[in-house]
């Protein structure tokens, strides 16, 4: 019964998200363009699938993943766990003591990104727009590797307490250099992937991780250090997707030269 | 309908494969690193089942509704619409999809708390609510503006990287003058504005526009709207923090 109630709540919330979009599109389509939608039944069934799909997806995550993932993030960053890993030695707050946190950030970043619906949508569209040259799986793995690296480095930054802008600016410079050498057709897609990695699945877990670290590492301020992990998860995929594009171009060139 | 059913079954299998890594990671850390028993496994199994079902339905809905809708709008605007309509549509779409975004609401509340602690605003409920609402409006306007710029870019065929890279330069300069408490929130605001429904719709719109205009490539010119929509909130939120 409780599950049905939360499904209903989820449906209402998703519907509320969609309502403004429907109103805007309805106004422009119906009033200004005066165009009828062909096959309205198909459109309505499709929209219901999207609404129901997102609600079920979120409810499922709420049941299966979020509470467990958040508990794990808290436990892994807790002083008790860090001390239990050290045995006799006393914890000093050295960054290496948080070894498992970096592994966890990377692993959870990689695996949740593969399940991110918005990224899947972009990958399907990129596959179609490139005439099949960009593979759906390859693009998603490249983005997931980016999120994994980004979250591991972002966790490290919170542990050592370095200022966020230094890291982000360095990554921008790397992206700038990559942009000069990468195949032109891949650049906009690579930039777009930065924005889609962090929506439904990744953000709640990442937020728990960031706040857990900022609370537990001695000398960290939740206000300053707890944020910024999402920013890492957004800029790193640009780097890895550009790298993926570059490497694919080299491999293709190698194949052609070989023949 | 039979076709849709096949697509659905196919996507159930794919969703299962996509979710496998999460299960492996959670199992590994729970049992081997944290050495804790797995909590109520029937709840988890039910949850996973719903996730697979939801993801599969979403994929079916993408093909049936969101992608065709975005493409059709792009086609109609390119054929019949005036430029001013297209641009106001882009702005309204960006504004409307962002202003009610739950993660944006959460982040602007947190920002208001921080602003109150740092004495930028009074520490009462009214001042905090006002501040959070202003921040939400600022981000929504910024996404609307980003889509307008993005659509103009597609029509004119400007290279995306110059716009994005100069935008980042502005972010860097503004960060230099901003309070550290504000920077984290501003950077995160860029990531939370693009929801699961907006992304497919906006991408289909961009690719559709590029495809219906002679001389534009869907890949080179069609993508990039999402990138702009994630960049502009950072600039607007940093600027908002400085003005306050």
Automatic annotation (TrEMBL), chain A:
Database matches in InterPro entries: UmpAB (IPR011435)
Domain of life: Bacteria
Alphabetical UniProt keywords: Membrane, Transmembrane, Transmembrane helix
Species of provenance: Alginatibacterium sediminis
Segments traversing the membrane: 12-32, 44-66, 99-124, 136-158, 164-182, 194-214, 226-245
Protein name per UniProt: DUF1538 domain-containing protein
Automatic annotation (TrEMBL), chain B:
Protein name: DUF1538 domain-containing protein
Cited InterPro entries: UmpAB (IPR011435)
TM regions (residue ranges): 44-62, 83-100, 133-155, 162-179, 185-211, 223-243
Keyword field contains Membrane: yes
Alphabetically ordered keywords of this record: Membrane, Transmembrane, Transmembrane helix
The organism's taxonomic lineage, starting at the top: Bacteria, Pseudomonadati, Pseudomonadota, Gammaproteobacteria, Alteromonadales
Pfam families reported in the protein's UniProt record: DUF1538 (PF07556)
